[in-house]
Design goal:
Layout (H helix, E strand, L loop, with lengths): L42 H15 L9 H39 L26 E6 L9 E5 L7 E2 L8 E6 L5 E6 L8 E6 L6 E2 L6 E7 L5 E8 L2 E8 L4 E6 L5 E5 L5 E6 L7 E6 L6 E2 L11 E2 L5 E5 L8 E5 L5 E3 L6 E6 L5 E6 L11 E6 L5 E3 L7 E7 L1
Antiparallel strand pairs: 1-2, 1-24, 2-3, 4-5, 5-6, 6-7, 8-9, 9-10, 10-11, 12-13, 13-14, 14-15, 16-17, 17-18, 18-19, 20-21, 21-22, 22-23
Length: about 400
């Protein structure tokens, strides 16, 4: 077939001219009246570009974010996941309740089944996770008479576990199964602080360190085999590793002002606060043998007292004591941070065993009162907060356990 555009003689089976790529059909005879079709070979490319533009416009795909945004997403995604789980739980409960109401309305029309219905867990938006919270209580309002107390997350079951006001007991935390509590005490002779262990009901109190310096903030590993604690000796602070029975293994580091060690959920890493450069306390993590130390934060107003949730997110507080402006925040291993309180002077957060709640101390109901700190819990999905203690003395250093 001869091309009317360039005159080239093409084979009969060709649809487009081999020479000029113009259409070879009856319409080509009226070529002067038709638009130029040379653009057809670019249609696939044009279509691809249009698709990409639409995908970006509707947010289906996006440009890679910088490290700071990725860091923010780690904490934000954690909170979003918790909120979604709470919403699903509420939906399942409401659906079950609707089905039950429908069944009761129609029970006269249908024979009753002899099979017992499955029990669905009740949903109450104010119900916290199970477990227990141990904390330091200044029973007689004397700071050097601190005692160990325990309470349920719903505010019931308060009990004082130590009862000798001649000695100071604090920095309590649970074993992984919640059966035992480790803490620091000035027993037996006020010459320093040693690590003690007792059952969660206060029985069988046993001293497990002696003559190795002062120990603070002891924490049992998730597998229950080891202890990590702040050790102060010869004017230096160390993060030290011990056996469960208190036998010294090694100092993991000796950074300036290193303190408040916390185990990772899998027991392979340790979170701690330190000021190695003497420029301000920051949070670091290291392997359980002291290797591979990494800095996590770059913030002002950090002091320590942190926790590590089962989901991998960490929590602490930032602010100044003199200004009473301390706030709780969440942070991740990649540097992400998110403030989760607003006002009230809040400190010392600890996650619930399921990671959906935190307990903390706050002056929010007794602002600027030195004896006004009380124990609270907060649901992370929506910020719902409940006060657990109500005393004329300070309750502080809460730790949530099973």
């Amino acid at each position: 077939m001869k091309c009317s555009n360039c005159g080239f003689e093409n084979p009969k089976y060709e649809k487009y001219c081999i020479n000029c790529h113009e259409l070879l059909d009856a319409e080509s005879k009226n070529h002067d009246q038709l638009p130029n079709r040379s653009f057809l070979k670019f249609l696939p490319i044009i279509g691809f570009v249009i698709c990409i533009v639409f995908l970006f416009a509707f947010g289906v795909i996006s440009f890679p974010e910088g490290s700071s945004n990725q860091g923010h997403n780690e904490v934000a995604e954690y909170l979003t996941t918790i909120e979604a789980q709470e919403t699903q739980q509420k939906f399942l409960y409401e659906t079950t309740a609707e089905e039950k109401d429908f069944s009761e309305e129609n029970e006269t029309q249908e024979p009753k089944s002899t099979k017992q219905p499955e029990t669905s867990p009740s949903y109450n938006s104010e119900d916290p996770a199970p477990g227990k919270i141990v904390f330091t209580c200044q029973i007689d309002r004397q700071t050097n008479h601190d005692q160990i107390c325990i309470i349920n997350p719903d505010g019931t079951g308060w009990k004082q576990l130590t009862n000798d006001l001649h000695y100071e007991h604090y920095y309590a935390s649970f074993s992984a199964n919640g059966d035992q509590i480790v803490f620091s005490s000035s027993l037996p002779d006020h010459t320093g602080f040693n690590i003690f262990i007792m059952n969660s009901d206060g029985s069988d109190m046993t001293q497990i360190t002696s003559g190795m310096g002062d120990f603070y903030a002891p924490a049992l590993s998730p597998d229950g085999q080891y202890l990590v604690a702040t050790r102060h000796i010869n004017s230096n602070n160390y993060i030290s590793l011990l056996t469960r029975d208190g036998d010294f293994i090694k100092d993991l580091n000796s950074y300036y002002d290193c303190k408040d060690p916390v185990w990772s959920p899998d027991g392979q890493q340790i979170l701690f606060a330190a000021d190695p450069d003497k420029t301000g306390i920051q949070f670091y993590i290291m392997n359980k043998d002291g290797s591979n130390v990494r800095k996590l934060t770059d913030m002002d107003g950090l002091r320590g007292r942190s926790d590590w949730s089962i989901d991998g997110i960490m929590a602490s507080y930032t602010g100044e004591y003199s200004l009473h402006n301390r706030e709780l925040f969440l942070f991740g291993e990649n540097g992400s941070t998110q403030i989760i309180t607003e006002g009230g002077d809040n400190l010392a957060p600890s996650f619930s065993p399921d990671g959906k709640w935190i307990t903390f101390m706050s002056y929010r109901d007794n602002y600027w009162d030195p004896d006004g700190c009380e124990i609270y819990i907060m649901r992370l999905s929506d910020g719902y907060t409940r006060r657990l203690t109500d005393n004329n003395y300070c309750d502080y250093q809460p730790r949530w356990g099973n």
